[in-house]
């Protein structure tokens, strides 16, 4: 006996779609300020300001990719080939954000190292003013995306980008103040180097989450052994095989399982009970469960 359980609520995979308007506003703000920061960074000869502008350019691409992904993820498949829909577009967008963040970090670190020992003249006033404006914009965008980062890996990627850029703006202000008070331009290089390292660390953290989803790992915090024990404790169940739980996209957990029943009469009740447990206790709305009188020859243990 086979059963598939799914909710008729709006798919949880559309979590990022609920924040599409906020992503669009954030994209417009960051896109506009990127040009301001780049121009003044070149005029002030500030690597910290230029690096922050480069990171803001990464924000533009990341937010644009996130915005596009939320649109693609909600489209209905017309090819008949994408049986899981296009939900993973959001995960791929988050992966693109990781690559962009690593690229920006590498560029900034490379440029900072190249400036070591170089006493290039830096204008601190544009750094402080433009960095201050950037900080305000980034804080506004952070507040807009904060709630969405809890629901969607895609929005979380964009949110992480903005967090890193906020730290960058604060660093630009600090560098400007230090250059102005000490007259030492190497503060600009030091802060730029710190920004690059910080961005790389955030990228690696997000990248690990993206790889976990693409690798079909058990959702973070999901006690797979507990799930197996709970299913095995259903009255009439004698064994549990081929239990697999993974994340299709942010907020959409998927599961498959084979259960063995003691009697043929128990099978419908076991199926309903198992679907209820997965949905109610483990937030798995999409589960395919096979309930059998005896285990098939193809059954495996809980893991392959």
From TrEMBL:
The keyword Transport applies. Residues 223-293 form the Cation efflux protein cytoplasmic domain. The chain crosses the membrane at residues 23-43, 49-70, 91-113, 125-145, 157-180, 186-205. GO terms for molecular function: zinc ion transmembrane transporter activity. GO terms for cellular component: plasma membrane. Belongs to the cation diffusion facilitator (CDF) transporter (TC 2.A.4) family. SLC30A subfamily. This is Cation diffusion facilitator family transporter. Keywords: Ion transport, Membrane, Transmembrane, Transmembrane helix, Transport. SUPFAM superfamilies: Cation efflux protein cytoplasmic domain-like, Cation efflux protein transmembrane domain-like.
């Amino acid at each position: 006996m086979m059963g598939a359980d799914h909710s008729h609520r709006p798919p949880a995979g559309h979590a990022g779609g609920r924040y599409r308007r906020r992503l669009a506003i954030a994209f417009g703000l960051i896109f506009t300020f990127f040009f301001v920061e780049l121009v003044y960074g070149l005029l002030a000869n500030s690597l910290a300001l230029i690096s922050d502008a480069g990171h803001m350019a990464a924000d533009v691409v990341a937010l644009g990719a996130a915005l596009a992904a939320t649109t693609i993820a909600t489209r209905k498949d017309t090819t008949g080939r994408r049986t899981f829909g296009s939900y993973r577009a959001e995960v791929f967008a988050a992966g693109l954000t990781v690559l962009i963040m690593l690229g920006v970090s590498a560029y900034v670190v490379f440029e900072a190292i190249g400036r070591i020992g170089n006493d290039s003249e830096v204008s601190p006033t544009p750094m402080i003013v433009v960095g201050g404006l950037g900080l305000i914009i980034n804080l506004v965008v952070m507040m807009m995306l904060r709630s969405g980062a809890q629901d969607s890996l895609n929005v979380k990627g964009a949110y992480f980008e903005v967090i890193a850029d906020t730290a960058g703006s604060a660093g630009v202000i600090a560098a400007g103040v230090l250059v102005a008070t000490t007259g030492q331009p190497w503060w600009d290089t030091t802060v730029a180097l710190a920004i690059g390292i910080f961005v790389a660390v955030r990228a690696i953290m997000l990248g690990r989450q993206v790889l976990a989803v693409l690798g079909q790992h058990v959702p973070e915090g999901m006690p797979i052994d507990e799930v197996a024990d709970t299913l095995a404790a259903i009255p009439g169940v004698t064994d549990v095989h081929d239990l697999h739980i993974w994340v299709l996209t942010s907020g959409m957990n998927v599961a498959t399982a084979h259960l063995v029943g003691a009697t043929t009469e128990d099978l419908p009740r076991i199926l309903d009970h198992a679907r209820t447990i997965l949905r109610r206790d483990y937030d798995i709305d999409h589960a395919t469960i096979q309930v059998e009188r005896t285990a098939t020859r193809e059954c495996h243990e809980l893991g392959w």
